[in-house]
Structure formats: structure tokens, C-alpha cells
Model the fold of this input.
Amino acid sequence: MREQAAVTRHENGWIRAKVPVPFSLKWVNAYLLPEEGGAWTLIDPGLRSADTEAFWEETLKSLGIRWGDIRRIVLTHHHPDHYGLSGWFQERTGAPVHLSMTARRYAMRLWGERETFSGELIAAFREHGLPEELTEGMRGHLRGVFGQVLPHPEDVRPLPPAGERFEMAGRSWELIGGEGHAPGHISFYDPEAGVVLCGDQVLPDITPNIGWMPDADPDPLGSYLASLREMRRVGEAYAYPGHRDPFPNASERISRLLEHHDRRLLRMRELLGDRDPASKADGAGEGTTSFEMCELLFGKRLRGNPHNLRFAMAETIAHLERLTLAGGAVRTEGRDPDGRRVVRYGPSEQAAE
Done:
């Protein structure tokens, strides 16, 4: 392969485009896969902004790809940095957008015309200890996402269910379902070629965020770990991830991710056991809130970054809920001095044995 700016041409004819994102990951990987007759399938085009629109206009021109050459847009999941430009691309190419029906449903729940999710998430975070003074910043962050995902694509075609096959780029791909990071996440596996397009389900160097949400999967971390164990059957497949660089031996990385979450759960159980109930600032009873645990794990610097705080809170709640379901913690509900519901976690007797 050879590098040219933010574009990588692979020996198999694929093109990777590193689409910029305005947060610490710096870019998301979009892939252009060649089809017959000079056509292309576009996978995960990125989130919408003036920068990404200009990026794609310049990139396609430099590659000699016309808008009409893109005949299909395929999405691994609904997160803005993967879904966001799909409608914009559809307007210019006329190409249908393929994603799982679960992913489509969540895209509309989060950013549809009658969206109520922002308020629901903030209310849930407050119950898990998010201080009142941080809610407005979180609300502004969530409102800002709308500009990154509109317009929604209109011609949306559901991907087959996990376990079935999907024809793309001259290959027959097995669809592998993935939960925990994003509901309805789909990875594409070609056992004959030994490659897997894994979206954000498996990433090198970094761990995918576990996406806890209210009124959704009550145990997203458990679902994620189960998905990873199932996905280990891809063996030494070469992985094309949604972030960072492609890498060999996907199952080895999957094993490292499973070990990471085991260590995180153990660390949180230890922290729950070490906490002094008398140290509660709001006097709302014993136990530790998710926000308090979040700051123990990630530090107080996240208070100034609503984007990162949102993901850290979701990650923390997901781990505490998994720990509770596994018997390593006890979940309690109480009220703060203002009468608001507060969820707390403490060590279980089972964990102490």
C-alpha cells in the first residue's frame, strides 16, 4: 500500500480515507470498495461538517471518482462519525444506504424529528450523580450533534440479520452482529479472503466505548463481552477498523479487549470496597454514584469536556451495572437532600468473601 495525504490505497484495490472528526480520535476510517464497471461501495462516510464536506469533495476529485460512481453506502452502526454524512452523500449520489434496522431505529430515536432522547439521557445521568451545574453543557453538546447527522437518508435498505450473507465488492460477506458499543452494530467477515470490516466493535490500541443508554439494553457491557466471544471465531483475519490503522490477527486483539474489561471490573470492585460512606458530599446515603466512580477512574478534567464526559459516564454505568448483575456490587436507590432520585453502588458481601 502507499500513502497519499489522508488516503491509503491497499493492494486489494480498497481505498481508506481518514475523514476528520472534531474530537480526540482525530479521524474515522471510511472505506471505498471497488465494484464492477468502475462503481464503488462507500462504508461509514463520517460525520457532517464543513470540513468533512470539503474533505470528500477534494478526495473524490483527486481519486477521479464521480458522485455517480458511488452506487451504495453501507454503515456499520448509527454513531454520528459513521452515519452522519450518509444523507448528504445520498443527495449527491442517489445511492441507497444499507444498515441494520436496529441501527436505523436508534438513529431516529436519538436525532429524529420527535427526539426526546437528550432529555432522557440527562435525566438518567442526574440520577447517576451528574452535578446540576454540568447538565447545561451536556445539553448543549447533545444539541450540537444534530448538525452532524442531517439530513437523514431517505432511501434506507435493511441489512440482512446477523449470521446471513451480504454481497459487496465481488465477495459474499458473513454479517456478524455486535452489541454493547452500538445497538445493531454489524461487522462484515469474508473467511475466504481472511478479512473483517469490524467498524468500532474491535479497535487497535484503544477500547471501544460501551454505550449505556436509558430504556435500552440494561447490560450493554455483558452484551459486548458476549459479542466479542462470538467474534473470536474470525481467527487471524486482517481487520479494517473504524478508527486507527488496519491490523492483523483480529482474535488476538479481541482477547486483549476481554482482558481489559476484566481488569476494569476488578478495579471498580476494589474502589467500591475502599470508599468511605461518610465522605459523601451530598449526604444522600451510603454508596458511590456513577459520577463519583467516573471521576475516580478518569479524573475531574472531564468536567470541562461534555463530549468525553458523556462517553465516560456511559462507560462507567455500564461497568457498574455488569458488576451488579455478576454479584460484585449492590445497587441502591435513594433521594438527595432536594428529593431527587439517586442511584448508588456499594460492595456486595459476595465480593468481600
